[in-house]
Amino acid sequence: MLNLLIATLRDLLRPSHDLLLENLALRQQILVLQRTNPKPPFRNRDRAFWVVLRHLWDGWRRPLRLVQPETVIKWHRKSWRMWWRWKSKPLQQPGRPRIPWEAILLIRRLSRENPMWGAPRIHGELMKLGYFLHESTVARYMLKRRGRPTQNWKTFLRNHLHETAAIDFLTVPTVTFRTLYVFVVLSLDRRRIVHFNVTTHPTAEWTALQIRQAFMFDDAPRFLLRDHDKIYGDAVVAALDELGIKQVVTAVRCPWQNGYCERVVGTLKRECLNHMIVFNEAHARRILRGYLEYYHGSRTHLGLDKDAPDGRAVEPVELGPVQRRPMVGGLHSRYYRAAA
To answer: Whole-angstrom Cα distance, residue 334 to residue 51?
Structure first.
């Protein structure tokens, strides 16, 4: 465009006959160009030139050869629409504001973790967390369920763990190839082993006595979970009825139905008894007492959110460097902070 303006100013200083001859030569070349390329391409600046020239000169149609006058008018109308589209563009994006993705994920999380919560309840919880959305938006992103919302079995069992205990036996070989039987009573609430004992000849009467000793201070649970072992005979049933405990018997060959106690039995073997050579009953009791001190007070459990059954306080760094206390004869360790 600058070059065209300079050429126009230069032509104004030339003689008129010189301009007429040059105009004749340019028209002849345009006629040749139309024969070889009847539709030459136009750039945006070329279109802008003819749109501006149409407003400045009434005779703009006479020299027009490469396109039709209607084409120039169409260019002008298109430019006008683009201009008003740009001028009418809103300062903000139209429509409702976008919902943050973290808010959508939080709605789904609250809906998944609380199946009995509806849209009003989740909406109120989100307001307390700083997300001010409409209740209909919350309902749109909630998880869709069929039927009435109910709790799952995991939640139901967890709410009744403090009223449930489980019992089981495990065997321990001695140095003289005898077999010792270890009886374990587990409280499912905090995974605490409330009672244990060791014998070489377990009977129903001996097992009933162990159950009475485990719950002798009116702290008997409401339910007791056990398997189909023949040792739980009439004496055990009578002891449970006397204590007001309802027994829940697992199916035949289904140890997973007494999973909490089975895991404790496996823990006692893997972390303690498999690393010891037991001499007699007294030795087995002494070993298990030492391990249960570590199990209840120091060992973290996945099912307790990495806490110990008896509870273990978090020790801040300000208390001092980390110290080690050997437990179970050095088989395990308790780490704590203490001033140097």
So the answer is: 88
Q: What is the separation of C-alpha 148 from the centre of its chain, rounded to a whole number of angstroms?
A: 25
What DSSP designation does 244 have? Answer: T
1 has pLDDT over 60: no
Q: Which two tokens stand for residue 309?
A: 């059954």
Residue pair 193/263 in contact by the 8 Å Cβ criterion: no
* CATH class name, domain 158-311: alpha beta
* 3 state SS of 330: helix
Specify burial of residue 243 (Cβ count, 10 A radius: 0-12, 13-18, 19+).
middle
Cα–Cα distance list, 104 to 53, 58, 98, 111, 215 (Å): 56, 62, 11, 11, 49
Kindly report which listed range (11-20, 41-50, 212-221, 295-304) carries the lowest average pLDDT score: 11-20
pLDDT in tens, 193-249: 999 999 999 999 999 999 999 998 778 899 999 998 989 999 999 999 999 999 989
Residues 6+ apart with CB under 8 A from 82: none
Beta-bridge partner residues of 226: 249
> What is the rounded distance in angstroms from the CA atom of residue 71 to the CA atom of residue 143?
57
Q: 328 burial class (0-12, 13-18, 19+ CB within 10 angstroms)?
A: buried
pTM, full prediction: 0.59
Residue in the structure block whose two tokens are 């080690």? 324
**Domain ranges within the chain, ordered by starting residue:** 1-38, 41-82, 101-143, 158-311
DSSP state of 174: B
CA dist list (Å): 289 to 35, 90, 96:
109, 77, 66
What is the separation of C-alpha 223 from the centre of its chain, rounded to a whole number of angstroms?
34
User: What gap in Å lies between CA 18 and CA 22, rounded to an integer?
Assistant: 6
Among residues 317, 315, 296, which one has the least CA distance to residue 307? 296
Asked whether 195 and 209 are in contact (CB, 8 A), the reply is no
